[in-house]
What does this fold into?
Amino acid sequence: MKNRILSYMEYMDKVLEKNETGLTYEEIMQEHLIQIQFFSHERLVHLLVTITFALLAFGTFFLLIVSFSPGLICLFIAVFILLIPYIMHYYLLENGVQKMYRQYDELLKQMRNER
It folds into this structure.
């Protein structure tokens, strides 16, 4: 997913610089809106997973404070280690979708200037 969103944003940056696709701005905008929907859905799913892992990490931590156990330490470490990549991936998706919104605004501006 990381490579897909990064390559798509790069593609859109090139289209914004110089539209050599042979498509009209309306067609490009329609395609872009579909991609925004895909990535927004992916962002929502990863937000839910990230929140779940954060709650598991904090719950395990508080359980460790109440009743210390080597098994809980292992569980906390495992959940916390998994939480870090989920946060990084969600960060990428959030910033990517925000950039795609700005790209859409730029497409709209260029379409209006073309008329």
In short: Residues 70-114 form the longest helix (45 residues).
